[in-house]
Amino acid sequence: MIFKIIEGIPDYAEIIDLINAEWPVQFGEKSDSEKIADMRESHDVERDRTVYIYDDSKIIGFYRYTAWPRAARITETAHIYDIAVLPSMQKQGIGMLLMDNLVDDCRKQGFKKLLSRSFRTNEGSIRLHKAAGFGISLETDDSIVWEIPISSK
After folding, report:
1. What is the C-alpha separation between 55 and 93, in angstroms, rounded?
2. What is the pTM for the complete model shown?
3. What domains appear along the chain, each with residue ranges and CATH number?
4. CA spacing 20 to 30 A to 42: which of 22, 28, 83, 137?
5. Are strands 113-119 and 77-85 parallel, antiparallel or unpaired?
6. How far does Cα 124 stand from its chain's mean position?
7. Interatomic CA distance for residues 132 and 128, integer angstroms
8. CA-to-CA distance for 2 and 85, rounded, in angstroms?
9. How far apart are CA 71 and CA 93, in angstroms?
10. 86 strand-pairing partners
């Protein structure tokens, strides 16, 4: 499997199956074109990092993280916006491969802490964060905010 950093705004249309796999019901019913527009609108070219994982030439997963808070020019914290694996490829360790690569990439970028959020209804995300060593930073009625320190190697 190969990881590839995507420069600029990704072509979200080419990963719509991944977007659909991770789209929270809490965000409401939307068409594919509306989801793509939302992803493009939320993408900050200066602050976000997007990486795809390929199996042969097929994109089977991706992640996107950002410097956090976004408005801060200098920060040691990153926040995961998206992490998804095609449903047909789930439960094969690919989510953990993505998470390990994401944490390593954050380390290389100089971040010291990584945050993430899971809706309580997203059991796969909760399992992944626990397995990756994240601790609970904050809980709300509908969400869990996760945190993990990133040590330098």
Report:
1. 13
2. 0.91
3. 2-149 (3.40.630.30)
4. 137
5. parallel
6. 13
7. 6
8. 14
9. 34
10. none
Q: How far lies 78's CA from each of 11, 17, 28, 103, in Å?
A: 23, 25, 26, 10
Burial class (CB in 10 A: 0-12, 13-18, 19+), 14: exposed
Provide the mean pLDDT of the chain: 94
pLDDT, tens only, 46-70: 999 999 999 999 999 999 999 999 8
CA 23 to chain centre: 12
For 3-63, the three-class secondary structure string (H helix, E strand, C coil) is EEEECCCCCHHHHHHHHHHHCCHHHCCCCHHHHHHHHHHHCCCCCEEEEEEEECCEEEEEE
